[in-house]
Specification:
By secondary structure, chain A is of the alpha+beta class. Chain A contains eight helices and eleven strands. Chain B starts with 16 loop residues before the first strand and ends in an 8-residue tail after the last helix. Classes of the chains: A alpha+beta (about 325), B mainly alpha (about 240). Chain B: One of its GO terms (biological process) is anaerobic respiration.
Chain lengths: ~325, ~240
Amino acid sequence: MFPPIPNPPVAPTSPGFSDKDLIRRSASSVPAPATRQTEVAKLIDVSKCIGCKACQAACIEWNDTHQAIGVNVGVYDNPADLTPEMFTLMRFSEWENPQTNNLEWLIRKDGCMHCEDPGCLKACPAPGAIVQYANGIVDFVHDNCIGCGYCVKGCPFDIPRISKVDHKAYKCTLCSDRVAVGQGPACQKACPTQAIVFGTKDEMKEWADFRIKDLKSRGFENAGLYDPPGVGGTHVMYVLHHADKPEIYANLPRNPTISPLVELWKGVGKYVGLGVMGLAAAAAVVHHLVAGANRVSPEDEANAEKLTEGRHS
Amino acid sequence: MTSDDGDRPYDVQPGDDVHPGKPVTVDRYTVGARINHWITAVSLVLLALSGLSMFHPSLFFLTVLFGGGQWTRAIHPWIGVVLFFSFAGLFIRFWKANLWRSEDNTWLRRIRDVLAGDEEKLPELGKYNAGQKFVFWGMSALIIILIGSGIVVWDEYFYPFTSIEQKRIAILVHAAAAVVIICVWIVHVYAAIWVRGTIGAMTKGRVTGGWAWRHHRKWLRELVGKRVVGKTSAS
């Protein structure tokens, strides 16, 4: 058993990190010193999940969201997808293992992965609407959000959702408010099987190693850690019993990266775009300086008068 | 110098007229065309400002012009709708006079003379020269691209109809087309400033006879010929 995080002290605690501890800030730069704190991570051990949805209930409760009561669409997923009111979602997949002919019921707790290189933050046009804290947590600052949905396009995991109520983007915060005072995320606290554990990234990797060895000893020879390098690693990681086939877990991407389209658009594109427009304007100024104004001469006017002579008005 | 179709009236438009005097004045745009133009112009400028504010972080401050980021995001697509329909009006008014003519090829080949302002070396032109036609058709094509790609990323109403990957393509196309249309706009505005006497066409609706003689002689001849009895206007 992973040692549980002790309950918080009764006396007020000053936060361990705040908006002064940013390493990235959307559409703006971070004021120095941007020093790195110990990276935190949440580890989701898919093999230990029993699909009870206590994490979803805890998430709703802690974040005080109000997911509308839905309808049964024929699967266990409830609601059917992430919403602005549901930051985490158990996704259930039925998979027939071709080696054992066993039906495996795979349950993956979906939600923000807190990428080390966050695509949402890269795409965001609003200064400070998306921030990355020095411990790796990626958070949305709703006061600055303009609701454009660019984060949705930037995200390699299809996580952010735009609220139809206040037109702002929502996703898992990794309970940054709880983590700031030494607590783990609400979902972790509620998980009855320790399928969710929380700690420093190093601790989580170490714990994952232990879990993977255990799974391998039980015949899951492809058990492994999901910490995708394409986004610089993530601060939410999975232990998968079939790490060689992440797609079977409700289409978990094999090698997620920020889309090259987004890199082009919010990377070199924005500089080239401004440059091209600037060149066009500069060319106009230069042309005017070189060629001078194109003026109508008195002869032109005289010719026009000659042409219209004798014309009925 | 002129092509065979020079004798046939082809780009005199409703409302175009010539008034003898000193100087001669020529009616170029009706009041309807001018209102239509300025609605389009204001829309385009507002779209450029609001779009640029979301394009590059250094221009985000432009959102204050629209009441903040949320308002900018909400209003930008609606201005786009206004522009689309307003430009459609201009398209219906002007497309015929913007059809490509043989003299436009000659004009393009002598682009150096155009840039130097040596218009005596150029063929006589109808209501629009090839550069103006480029602006017209460029704007037309770009506005279709922009409204099409814009609808794909207008999440408020159209989010469920496309995939995220399609939205990524659309937003890149939208941004690229916007850069190009702003450049076309710069060419359009600069040309109107450089060629003195042009702006009155869109403010007062008329230009001087000398302006028409210098820049659009074929159009002027046609206008004069239209009213002169028993006299041919062809050179």
